[in-house]
Amino acid sequence: MTEDNFKMSNKQEEEVSKFFAPENEKRKVETPDGEIIEINPLQDYFSDARPKVHHPNTSKVVEKFLNWARAESLWVLGFGTGCGSIEIPPLLTPRFDAFRFGVQMRPTPRQSNVIIISGYLAVKTLKRVIRSYEQMQNPKYVLALGSCTINGGMYFDSYNTINRLDYYIPVDVYVAGCMPRPEALLSGFGKLKELIKAGKGEKANEYVEKFDWYKANQKKIIQDWNMPDYNW
Amino acid sequence: MNNLFNWEPDRSKYPTVKDNGELDVDLSSHKFTKLWVGPNHPGITGNMAVEITISGDEIVQAKTHVGYLHRGFEKLIERRLFIQGFPTCIRMCVAEPDYNEYILSKSIEDLSGIEIPEMAEWLRTLALEMARLQSLLRTVPGQGGTFSLGLGVQWGMYLRDLISDRFEELTGARIYHMYILPGGVRGLLPDGFKARMEENLKLIDQFVINIKKLMFDNVIFKKRAIGVGVIKKEWVDQFGIVGPNARAVGISRDIRKDYPYLKYQELDFEPPIAKNGDIFARSTVRYQELIQTVDLIRQIMAKMPEKGDIKSPTPNVLHWKIAKGETYIRSESSRGEYGMYYVTDGSDKPRRINLRGPSYNHAMSLLEHMLINANISDVHAIMVSLQTCPPEIER
Amino acid sequence: MKDLLERLNTKYNLTDIKYQRDNLVFLTIGKENTIDLVTHLRDYEGFTHFVLLSCVDWIEEGKFQLTYFLNQPERKYDIAIRTMIDRDNAEMVSAHHLWRQITTYQRELREMYGINFPGSPGVDENFILEGWDDIPPMRREFDTKQYSEDTFFPREGRKTHDPASYMKEKLYPTEPTTDKVNKTDE
């Protein structure tokens, strides 16, 4: 087999460009509401609609069952933001074994409902965290690890790390310490379970209700805000 | 037929080179795709992003983005007393905090002329080697982890936890030990420490045998690691490559041998060397270093005295002033030369500290250069094989 | 080491030579000869390993001190070349052609101190910070605590003491309390 076999002839190239061309042209589309909009296939589109409140089920029994199911399957987004991420791998090994509590790591925000903010947050990371948090599906919970998420901890005077996490995204459970031990983290998960089972894990709704306040805080420190306000 | 298996893309046509020497990468031509690896990805040891442009599954351009973990340590330590800077500085690299403690303490001792007692030197050597062992127990199987050999990671993490327990006995903390202070160390070995450590080392001896079967005799690992991610010999000086990455090319550079510090002169060891400079060679060097570190810990525990002074008198730490001066202290961490440039100006706070981490060169200029023409499935393997630690790049 | 310095002294005007250790020497040279000396050391004296490029802010004198750390791997000694540049419109000749990692160091110094290195590739790109619009953070006049308080919503109730006066108060409670009122927020 020679290399020439991999080269395309002029005719083939023409066919390829024909195949791609109409798709990539800007065109007008009719939306379900009857509105006509122009779309550009080469551009990224995000939904920037405001988030909606996630109401509990009207039946108390069903809601209780749902809460039980949510509490027993905490799927964590694999996003380590700081020093705390060094204590998460031991959590998943047989010694501490978080799997027995239904905790497991997931690679994408779409599949997970818990985000662990494992320590200090630099401003650059905060932007990525907000995006990941907003991409997660409801119901979602935030577990904040370490003293740096509570009041800045060691980095209270640093110019690049935030002091209080709860001004930017709502926090369900704090685990204090620098570093918190894996046992403390497990107990944090236990606390989160209790909250969810009692129907108190409603921080995602709080984020929706105080959306403008959170956005104002976030935009105050993230200088180049080049993303939609809410992207899910 | 041989061509079919050693197929290489025809790069004569694209990417074409512009007049000013830059590559002509036009994303709308459908020949290139831009991908971000990171800032958070299981294959990366910390938050760091690599922006790669691929053509097919080959990388044409790569650019490292850091800054996701920047805390401004150097600024923070400038406004703290000498002793206050100490708990701050150890958080600069999370995987091996003891090296931060050592270089900071040693800089202060060097500038103020404090000699530390012999027992403290032995204990420091022990703590540093234990930290190296912890770090290697993560990286050696971690390299297999990038090729989906996840079992080794589980073994390594369990053993790493046992060493964490020994650290907890010795210092009271699992991760941030704060054991090595200016003037000495904080405590003697607890009773029965050596016996318990020996038990753990025996488990690690077994792990060493198992991991060889799992990784280094594994045909998949060999197939993917040999000849991939090659560092050439002439790059070592050009890019400032240090530590195991340089030793895997055949250049024997080890701070413990070249600029002996602490008690390394009295220990019997020879840094392992490999020739080829690919991922397999770097893994082998780390693997042999793991065996050597176990041996070093045994040597240290056998040779160290039972009792002794562990702390020299220092001035009152709250009123400690150091005359104007500057120094550079280096040590050999598991990643290579780990140094600190320390400047004082006669006041009670340092004027400037600057950490010299090996990842600074490895992850920025070297990685960008190495990734070109690599396959996209090897990106994580190459990154992990350089053993980068992003927090020490940006501090 | 001493013979090397004698050789260099005939060629360059070196001042402030200080032996920190037997194998580590600090010396100062004028701004215009710095890159010349670094190139000479690399090409003729075997200083092939570039360790570090750092900057010290001497705000009182209105100067930045750039320090180039070179290492000679065979004879195992280090040389640190200091050069003073003006603080206003700080600018230095770029050395990115000598070692590849200097590009990164110069990018960092550009961002953290505002020192310009004309011609260094990508020197104006963001390195660590994103969208920073204040004065470069590592300069001495930048007050990081003030910035943090103004920007990041400090949590109330964080009470800290100046350790010196706090310990004094604790150890000698009966002494007259004249000089311990200056509690700071450190």
Describe, in plain words, how this protein is organized in 3D:
Chain A contains 7 helices and 7 strands, in the order αββαβαββαββααα. In chain A, the strands form 2 sheets. Chain A has a 5-stranded parallel β-sheet with strand order 4-3-5-6-7, with helices on one face. Chain A has helices at 10-24, 60-72, 88-91, 123-135, 182-197, 203-209, 211-221; strands at residues 27-30, 36-39, 75-77, 104-106, 114-118, 141-145, 173-175. Chain A has a domain at 60-221: Rossmann fold, CATH 3.40.50.12280. In chain A, strand 5, helix 4 and strand 6 (141-145) form a beta-alpha-beta unit. The model of chain A is unreliable at 1-5 (pLDDT under 50). In chain B, the strands form 3 sheets. Chain B has a 3-stranded antiparallel β-sheet. In chain B, helix 5 (118-145) packs antiparallel against helix 6 (150-171), helix 6 (150-171) runs antiparallel to helix 7 (193-216) and helix 7 runs antiparallel to helix 12 (279-303). Chain B is globular and about 70 Å long. Chain C folds into 2 domains: 2-154, 2-Layer Sandwich (Beta Polymerase, domain 2); 158-186, no CATH class. The longest helix of chain C has 12 residues, at 102-113. Chain C is globular, with a radius of gyration of 22 Å. The chains are: A alpha/beta (232), B alpha+beta (395), C alpha+beta (186). The interface between A and B is large, with 37 and 36 residues.
Keywords:
heterotrimer; A: 232 residues; alpha/beta; Rossmann fold; 5-stranded parallel beta sheet; globular; disordered N terminus; B: 395 residues; Cytochrome-c3 Hydrogenase, chain B; 3-stranded antiparallel beta sheet; 15 helices
Nutshell version of this structure?
The complex is a heterotrimer of chains A (232), B (395) and C (186). Chain B is an alpha+beta fold and 395 residues long.
Could you say which overall geometry of chain C the principal axes of the C-alpha atoms support?
A: globular
CATH topology of the domain at 73-138 and 148-205 and 250-356 in chain B: Cytochrome-c3 Hydrogenase, chain B
Number of domains of chain C: 2
N-to-C terminal Cα separation of chain C, in Å?
44 Å
Largest interface, and how many residues on either side? B-C, 41 and 39 residues
Count of extended strands of chain C: 5
Distance between the termini of chain B: 52 Å
Name of the level-1 CATH class of the domain at 73-138 and 148-205 and 250-356 in chain B? Mainly Alpha
> From the helix content, strand content and strand pairing of chain C, which structural class follows?
alpha+beta
Instruction: Give the DSSP E fraction of chain C (strand runs of 2 or more residues).
Output: 15-25%
Q: Work out the number of β strands of chain B.
A: 8
Ranges of chain B where pLDDT stays below 50 over 5 or more residues in a row are none
Order of helix and strand elements from N to C terminus of chain C: HEEHEEEHHH
Looking at the overall shape, the CATH architecture of the largest domain in chain C is: 2-Layer Sandwich
Please state roughly what percent of the residues of chain B sit in beta strands, choosing from under 5%, 5-15%, 15-25%, 25-35%, 35-45% or over 45%.
5-15%
Strand order of the largest sheet of chain B: 1-2-3
Q: Please, what is the CATH homologous superfamily of the domain at 73-138 and 148-205 and 250-356 in chain B?
A: Cytochrome-c3 Hydrogenase, chain B
Outline of chain B: globular
- Average residue pLDDT of chain C: 82
Task: Tell me the radius of gyration of chain B.
Answer: 22 Å
